[in-house]
Amino acid sequence: MSQSESDFLLASYDYELPEERIAQYPPEVRGSSRLFVLERGSGRNVHTDFAHLPDFLPKDALLVVNNSRVVPARLFGQKPSGGKCELLVLTPPPLLKSCAIMDGEWAHSRCECLLRPGRSIRVGDRLTFGDGIAAEVLVKKEFGQHEVELFWKGDLVERMTEIGRLPLPPYIKRDQEKDDVSRYQTMYASPEKSGSVAAPTAGLHFTEEMRSRLKEMGVEWAEVTLHVGYGTFSPVREEDIREHPMHSEYVEISPETAAAVRRAKAEGRPVIAVGTTSCRTMEGCALQNGGEIPEGGWHGWTNIFIYPGYRFSVVDHLITNFHLPQSSLIMLVAALCGRERILNAYAEAVKEEYRFFSYGDAMFVR
After folding, report:
1. Averaged in consecutive runs of 10 residues, what is the pLDDT profile of the chain (366 residues)?
2. CA dihedral of 270, 271, 274, 275, whole degrees rounded to 10
3. How far apart are CA 205 and CA 363, in angstroms?
4. Which residues pair with 140 in a beta bridge?
5. pLDDT of residue 120
6. 55-87 in b/e burial notation, b at 16+ Cβ within 10 A?
7. What's the pLDDT score for residue 323?
8. What are 346-352's contacts with CB under 8 Å, separation 24+?
9. Across the strands, what pairs with 74?
């Protein structure tokens, strides 16, 4: 794939998107989305339904999904003055719990978060969120980010579920509704992996029926964990994208998944990442481990930034949604199929009235 200086310019990843193409709600029935198949080999595009995905999967494929669960990380509380405040928990709760210190009936741990209203909140303020969660402000940073000491009683995720709301993406211009509680989760999200502030949205299209059909076809299924951070919505601000400081995310690859990926690569079978998060998990791990997934699995932080020119070590194909203009996610997809190719495909998707972003339709880059 030829490389161009334009591939490194932020403005090169812009495209026109009418506001009505941004999906504000999930499809009425899970799995009833449309599917845009982008074929790199032939150069053709196919318009179909997600139900027909199995017809396009290569033989003996390994599908790798992200089993992280979205937590209701938006907490509404009070400042010392009695005024209202909002805190968005950014550090994954499993990590907060793993290093928590007990102080009587309260547990506490240092936590990255977003706070609003940022201007009127001061270092040292103690914020309260119901009877079971509190926060002491430690450090103020840029763009509303803060470090706090987070305090909670009992189980943190249970307390968050009682008082919190899902952090729906900023382009969904409405409040959380009842259906979001189930529809903004994949059907394979694990309660033990409750740590994301955004859904791994490519997985929202999968149903139990689809999974059973894939199993009957002999498609192998493996799971990784990447706790999606709010940085997934952070804009790329640098004109030269190579200067963009990518956010870090915590990932886990189990020994079983590591073995499945290593076996597929050794046998020459295609590895398909379901979502950019699964892709970043595997490629981020490989980047820190000599170009492969280590035997026995791996866990740690990755801030991998994938854009054109990147050489993929693990992922062969990608199932994904349609991403924001000038986002790091559209750059990742461009690395797999070429910037001009993906922008032309997006223009076609707009013309064909596909639904965009988290609750939108799917794309298969094969």
Report:
1. 85 97 98 98 96 96 98 96 95 95 96 90 95 96 91 96 94 95 97 94 98 96 94 86 93 98 98 98 97 97 96 98 97 97 98 98 98
2. -110
3. 11
4. 146
5. 87
6. eebeeebbbbbbbbbbbbbbbebebeeeeebbb
7. 97
8. 346/15, 346/322, 347/15, 347/16, 348/36, 348/45, 349/36, 349/322, 350/15, 350/16, 350/17, 350/18, 350/21, 352/36, 352/47
9. 88, 165
Cis peptide before 167 (omega within 30 of 0): no
Tokens of 57: 């999967």
* Cα separations in angstroms, 136 against 106, 119, 150: 13, 16, 7
What structural domains does the chain harbor?
5-69+181-365 (3.40.1780.10), 73-163 (2.40.10.240)
C-alpha 296 chain-centroid distance: 24
Half-sphere exposure of 213 (CA within 13 A, CB side): 12
Rounded Cα distance, 73 and 195, in Å: 9
Supply the Cα-derived Rg of the chain in whole angstroms: 21
Parallel, antiparallel or unpaired: strands 194-196 and 106-116: unpaired
Chain centroid to CA 101: how far?
29
Sign of the torsion angle spanned by Cα atoms 87, 92, 96, 99: negative
According to DSSP, the β-strands at 194-196 and 145-153 are unpaired
Could you give the angle at the alpha carbon of 72 between the alpha carbons of 66 and 74, nearest 5°? 125
Query: What is the C-alpha to C-alpha distance for residues 61 and 356, in angstroms, rounded to an integer?
Result: 27
The closest of 175, 167, 184 to 27, measured between CA atoms, is 184
> With contact defined as beta carbons under 8 Å apart, do 347 and 15 qualify?
yes
Say how far apart CA 328 and CA 305 lie, in whole Å.
Answer: 7
Q: What is the C-alpha separation between 18 and 15, in angstroms, rounded?
A: 10
Residue whose entry in the numeric block shows the structure tokens 């892709």: 279
Q: What's the confidence (pLDDT) of residue 2?
A: 58
Residue pair 274/202 in contact by the 8 Å Cβ criterion: yes
Distance, in Å, from the CA atom of 331 to the CA atom of 353, rounded to the nearest integer, reads 22
Q: End-to-end distance of the chain based on CA atoms, in angstroms? A: 15
